[in-house]
Molybdenum cofactor guanylyltransferase (Paracoccus litorisediminis), 200 residues
Amino acid sequence: MSLPPAVILAGGLSTRMGGGNKGLRLLAGETLISRVLGRLRPQCSAVAVNANGDPDQFEDYDVPVISDGFAGFPGPLAGVLAGMEWAAALGADAVVSVSVDTPFLPLDLVHRLCEARGRSGLAVAASADETGELRDHPTCGLWPVAIAGDLRAALESGLHRTGQFAAAYNPGRAVFDSNPFDPFMNLNTPQDLAEAARYL
């Protein structure tokens, strides 16, 4: 099976990080987007960034920049839709999504998502703690482009919860260990950045 393309979701307002472009925040001297690209590029056929505002912010990273098709920063689902439409234009049947603030993504994420896809073709990443309890991370998922119309209709109806949309398709789950820390850890605040630097 050919490798799917991927979209990095970087279209939010980053209010808890103090505003601005979260992907350009530094973690131990390297931007978050650079760290995510370094882990994702070897796993995918192509990578785009979903971002709103000036696309030249990402000119150093040699990636296409695709914006939300909806006004008002409706959240990551709008970025997933933009990624689906970009992937469909490439002739792909699915697209992987990840968040720009997850710099510890597993190096086998895409392979595991493709293996885990459910009957609908959709799969989400999940992490398991020491008790075996699962936590879904639906912004890290594999999305069939065939449901782009459904997603557009859901967004137009006011649905913004990524997990809620994914759950309607009974997704498969690619489960990863959380020891010594969750590989899908989101860095939302300056304190999160400081904690992540300690893990490095």
